[in-house]
Inverse folding.
């Protein structure tokens, strides 16, 4: 039995739909301002994006970033968050914040985490005392953080698990935990609770879960449990199946996705929001994300390269001095990157800008109803030959009416 529908603290303003694929462009109006969709959300772990200040994140066009409940719950902790008045004030971040439930962090970081009907049991990383994260506790923490979008605690297991019985149990438990989250949520008028669809790679389980979640009528919907090493074909089938059953006027968030190819294909399959630590993490290894693929600027080939990280990029690093930027060259990154932070910091700025800009370009293409041409152009730049296009992308896009291989 579904509880009474909750109030919503968002409005989803649909601006355009692709006439061929399932792509949508929208503006998501949240308590801390409007957010353009589709949107990539950088992950600001421990309330500061590694390598970027809130001002730089803002300047890159970010209007919604992700904070980890698990980290904020440990430091500064719930009492301090309540005293300060939440994570927006803690970080002096005037825009929107999305928090995860904390469950996934625990299961992935703490080897001894154990899931029962009550919640996630784990040993405190501080002193080893047994602790329990329940749906109620996760929501209480997120209420103290004050994030604009909060996520339900879900029972998440790796999609590649062959145990269908456990997969079904996790899916059904996630629905029961959503009901507990809805009941525990103190501020539905200013914080939007998103449900998380589970069910592994089994499309029937995903369908069943989607129907149960949609019946709960949360302000937004996430598709969870993916990006766990499953084949991309399987990933696309799950996203396509779920979006096909979701209401049009609600945001759809696919968790843990960040490779540019995955983003543009997922948008074509009807998804709107994404997050991933990869763009910022990979910057720390000297990797720049560009339309031509990922470039490792630590490669000696860039030692005397006086060009910007990416030709034509409008990020503050790549723009020339005359154009108000820093005029950073590949050679400069090459020479400082070995010495750690400076190079990583510059590449982080570029990568975050790349991701946000890619979403902006996709959005414009959808609004102008030329998303299929955008997709063809995107893959043509990324691969010098059509024979190198990834089969999963070709298949998934063919399923929504775009043939990348035709002329
Ligand atoms: Zn750049």
């Amino acid at each position: 039995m579904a509880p009474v529908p909750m109030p919503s603290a968002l409005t989803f303003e649909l601006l355009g739909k692709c006439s061929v694929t399932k792509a949508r462009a929208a503006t998501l109006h949240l308590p801390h301002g409007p957010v353009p969709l589709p949107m990539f959300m950088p992950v600001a772990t421990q309330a500061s994006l590694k390598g970027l200040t809130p001002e730089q994140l803002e300047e890159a066009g970010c209007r919604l970033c992700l904070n980890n409940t698990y980290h904020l719950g440990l430091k500064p902790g719930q009492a301090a968050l309540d005293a300060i008045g939440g994570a927006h004030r803690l970080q002096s971040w005037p825009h929107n914040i999305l928090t995860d439930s904390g469950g996934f962090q625990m299961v992935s970081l703490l080897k001894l985490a154990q899931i029962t009907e009550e919640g996630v049991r784990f040993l405190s990383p501080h002193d080893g005392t047994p602790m329990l994260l329940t749906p109620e506790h996760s929501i209480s923490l997120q209420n103290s953080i004050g994030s604009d979008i909060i996520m339900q605690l879900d029972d998440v297991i790796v999609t590649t698990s062959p145990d269908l019985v456990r997969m079904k149990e996790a899916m059904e438990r996630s629905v029961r935990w959503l009901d507990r989250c809805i009941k525990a949520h103190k501020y539905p008028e200013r914080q939007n609770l998103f449900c998380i669809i589970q069910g592994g790679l089994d499309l029937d389980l995903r369908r069943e879960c989607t129907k149960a979640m949609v019946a709960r009528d949360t302000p937004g919907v996430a598709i969870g449990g993916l990006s766990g090493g499953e084949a991309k074909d399987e990933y696309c089938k799950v996203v396509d199946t779920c979006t096909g059953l979701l209401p049009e006027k609600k945001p759809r968030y696919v968790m843990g996705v960040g490779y540019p190819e995955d983003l543009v294909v997922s948008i074509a399959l009807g998804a709107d929001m994404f997050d991933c630590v990869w763009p910022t993490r990979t910057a720390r290894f000297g990797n720049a994300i560009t339309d031509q693929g990922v470039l490792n600027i630590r490669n000696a080939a860039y030692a005397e390269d006086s060009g910007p990280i990416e030709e034509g990029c409008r990020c503050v690093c790549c723009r020339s001095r005359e154009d108000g930027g820093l005029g950073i060259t590949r050679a400069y990154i090459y020479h400082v990157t070995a010495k750690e932070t400076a190079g990583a910091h510059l590449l982080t700025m570029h990568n975050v800008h790349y991701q946000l800009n890619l979403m902006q370009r996709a959005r414009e293409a959808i609004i102008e109803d030329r998303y299929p041409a955008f997709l063809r152009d995107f893959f043509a730049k990324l691969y010098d030959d059509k024979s190198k296009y990834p089969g999963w992308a070709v298949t998934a896009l063919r399923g929504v009416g775009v043939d990348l291989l035709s002329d």
